[in-house]
Please model this.
Amino acid sequence: MTKERSDLLQGTLDLLVLKALQLEPMHGWGITERIEQWSERVLQLGQGTLYPALYRLERQGSIKSEWKVTENSRRARYYSLTRQGRRQLDSELAQWRRTSRAVNQVLEVTTP
Amino acid sequence: MRWIRESWRRLRAFTRFDALERGLDEEIRFHIERQVDKNLRAGLTPDEARRQAYIQFGGVERFKASTRDELRPALLQDSLLDLRYGVRALRRAPAFTLVAAVTLALGIGATTAVFTVVHGVLIKPLPFRESDALVSLKHTAKDVGAGPPVGISLSLFVSYASHNRSFDALGVWSRGTEYVTDGPRPEEVTVLNVSAGTLRALGIRPARGRWFSEADQAPEAPETVILMDGYWRRRFGRDPAILGRRVTVDSRPRVVVGVMPAGFRFLDESPDLVLPVRIDPVALTLGGFNYEALARLAPGVTVEQASTDLRRIVPLWVEAWPSFPGIDRHAFADTTPLVRPLKDELVGDADTMLWVLMGTIGIVLLIACANVANLVLVRAQGRHHELAIHAALGAGRGRIARQLLAESLVLGLLGGTLGLLLAAAGLRVLTTVGPVSIPRLREITLDPTVLVFTLVTSLASALLFGGIPVAKFGGRRVALTLRAGGRGSSDSQERNRARNVLVVAQVALALILLVGSGLMVRTFVALRAVPPGFTDPDHVQLVRVTLSEAEVGEPELVLRLQRDMLDRLATIPGVTRVSFTANVPMAGERSRSIFTRSSIWREDVPMADPSKPPPIRWFRYVAPGFFHTIGTHLVAGRDFTWVDLEQRRPVAVISENLARELWLEPRAALGKRIREGDGSPWREVIGVVGDVYDEGVHRQASSIVYWPSFMENFCGQQVTVPRAVTFAIRSSNAGSERLLTQVRGAISSVKADVPLTRVRTLADVYARSLAATSFAATMLAVAAAMALVLGVIGIYGVIAYAVTQRRREIGIRAALGASRGELAGMYVRRGVKLALAGVACGLACAAVLTQLMETLLFRTSPLDPTIYGLVSLGLVGIAALASYVPARGAAQVDPMQTLRGV
Model:
């Protein structure tokens, strides 16, 4: 339990997963690593929470998975965005930006 | 077994559930390994690296579970999953599972067993083609005396056969015994006399040979016989060349023309031989309703239409045949046909008892379910916290409900399976000890319908006892209890209400059953209290001896041999009295060779309407000393003597009720004269004896005329002597093998090679007449005992649970100075209060429900206050006791310990 760990707002995890998969297909562990790196280790997921999210997204049709062999010749399930996933990413990003800007504006109001 | 496993495998492959599960396992394993690698690179020791990896991942199983939730597989997979959870959960709680499953197994097993009987006897169609079209024909006639409907006379059968427009086939039949005399010694066989239409109506073909045709019925036709499968096997070793062989029945050789198929039962009869009824149209008269009739309705004809059709024929019949001498033919004009489904006729009055039994057992099952529901509630309360967390984590209402239900379903199926085994064992007992008076008992099997019934019962029970906790804990409110922290509110009134209601229901149901069985036991006691007309039947040995016409021709010789046998029997040590009769009381014995009932005319009062015959009375033929031997007391006058028989005196003895009916007073009957036919000599009443309940003690005692076993000019016969008589031997050794050996010796010393048949004691006959009632009483008592035990366990459980839940409170009360007595009393009061509520509800229900069993009762009101009072008091007392045991535990709580332990 790291102090810096922030509770993710509900729905945010889905957005992060989609974002992480934007560039290339990745397996589950890779996704957690990438999110940690990008967030400079502020967002340390309880790694297990990732899997329900992955299965949920796959069921919704935003991502798809296939079994591949890694560079260390081990079998791993790779996830990639579907077309619907890319659209979802775009719309959720836009939504997120609107929300975060609004939140920031509220927080930056200087009290008299 | 292998196909089950195979199809299971396929099912799983089909649902791909396992593939997904394995995939998830592998994926998570891969994830952890990568994390371990990373941690190693960061410089952790291997153990620490692995430990950290798991910590970083969080609970593996927990996330697997929530991932599975995300999978949301098809409903079937989900249910399988839930069932698997159910199995796992039950395996973790073996004590709970055992108690619950055994309780259920008892309830379901008993229900299945009784349903099997109800199904086999009442519901299942008769084992004949299109058996709904089969009907029986009976007749009532006001003038020939009230009483149960009689069968049919041959003349009426002939009239029906030629005039009816309703039947595809119509036949008559009667049962009897004959002697096969071509073996080394005469063998008594049971026979069925049938007309050609009888088996045509049933639609059963012989396995070999042919069925009787109308030609076999003609008076001069060659004598023929059809063998039943059992007799063919026993006597002829399944001889394939049996057709055309001869069997000598009663000294007359008969040609075997057919063999019936194995497993064929004629209604409830399984005779040895089938003989054709001889119909000589020239000799027929209107009377003689000694046959039974059955018919197959033509397609589209209803029972009512058939009745109307037959009523139309009755006047034609009255005009077509001669009457008895001395009886006007119009006395027969009010003969009314009764047509009813053959199955109803066969089942008779067994249906009330069986349905009452079925209802009773259903109540036992309800009580068992209530008990299990109680257990499940306690268990659910134990897992309350867990369920609340599930709910808080977002598990849907339906999902929690399903999980709770799955466990109950598994439990229900487990109980059902065990119950089926119990039922199979119970049925074996039931079909062997069940009374002969239950018809079709031998047709009963655990067939597919019964299996479906058991499955449905199990599932319904599971929904019943599983549904209550679901209703309580499946709701969203569960989340609220998290806040309460799980302790303070654990004894909330609201939660105990469900358990209290269950206990009240259990007590109420148990009371209904106890009242029911109490009424039945009282009926049984009342029946036993009726003096049957004989005393100490345990010590009366009965054996039947027949001297056939072929072997002993002369009637005088028959009498002499019978008397010699008596003398020899009397010399057996321990035998105090001995005599014989042609027809044993209460045994329902009828014979074709002697008249067992007929009209009786009296000399002193002439008939008001000479065209109508006087009422019918039962006849019994006895040797001197018979009354004394079986213990029928002499009310007035004297018994027959051997001199009466030797001199062929025209004398008779009558039963007390007949004497009172005809002459108001037993003594007044002495010296009066009666006769059995218009042209017969008058016979003087020399004695009056106590009533004998020939039809069973639950019916009115029959009015009986006793005739000496040797008479002349009786019923148109020159000399009447019964050739088949039953010796009644009073001895303290009755029923023992030793006495039988001595009896056999005594009989064969008079005439060698005479077989003893129908060996039994008078007590056997008596018990058989009580069999239906004692069976019902026993079954109800067993059901009530089960209900009582389950109900007591229910009360005990509720109080014990309340005590353990409130140890803290009890400790505080004790610390504040409450005495032990007060504390125990508090809980006993609580138990008694529940019991009282249950008794109140139960009394109301019982008062209504017991009306249904009124026809089963004898000299007992369905509202018998003694039974109701005793049962209520007893139940409350037992409830107090059941509460006292756990309550005493409460009083022994050490206040300091509880307070500290908090």
Remarks:
- The first helix of chain B runs from residue 2 to 15.
